[in-house]
Amino acid sequence: MSEDANVPLEKAVIDELGDEKLTEIAGLLDTDAAGAQNLITETVSALSGGLQEKATNGAPEEVDEVRQAFAEVGDAAGAAPLQGVATLGGGLGGLLSGGMMAGVIAKMSKPVATAVSKKTGIPAPTVSRAIEMLIPVLLAVLTKRAASSKAGASGGSPQASGPIPTPGPVPGAAPGATPTGQQGGQQGGGLDLGDILGNILGGGKK
């Protein structure tokens, strides 16, 4: 399941996407399902790596921006459980319409499209269009993982509504990523950004 942090983020996004959307992206790329999966894997990996880079090595304002973006994802997770891509117009409405996380990812989309284009040979404008299709799916996965991590942190009793006191879990951490709470300051609940990154991406949990 996409909310399981032990599942690689790239696979979680492909699973969340579903066959119909995967076929749609394959048509956009003029390739088959395997080719579409390859591009999605490269793209999600680059986006998550970019988030980790901002969180660990970014300027203080970038670290703060990432922290706030994931806090917003956590708030969305507490407010409205998601049931997949079909609900993107519901619980994720705020995130998709000017939400901080969508904005952070959008800022990275052009350099990511360029990098993925160089690796795959697919034109950057086409990759950019695919990224636009992937953003709501990635947000859905992050929100589910935020809810799952929040439930685990509270002993299996997630709050049904209201903002969470700490940033929601974060995508983008590589295994063994160094915690960055000392760099960006710790949030009230005691979870530092490095822990959140590890919990959300998958593979980074102790």
From TrEMBL:
Residues 150-196 are annotated as: Disordered. Residues 150-163 have a biased composition (Low complexity). It comes from the Bacteria. Pfam families: DUF937. InterPro entries: DUF937. Residues 182-192 have a biased composition (Gly residues). This is DUF937 domain-containing protein.
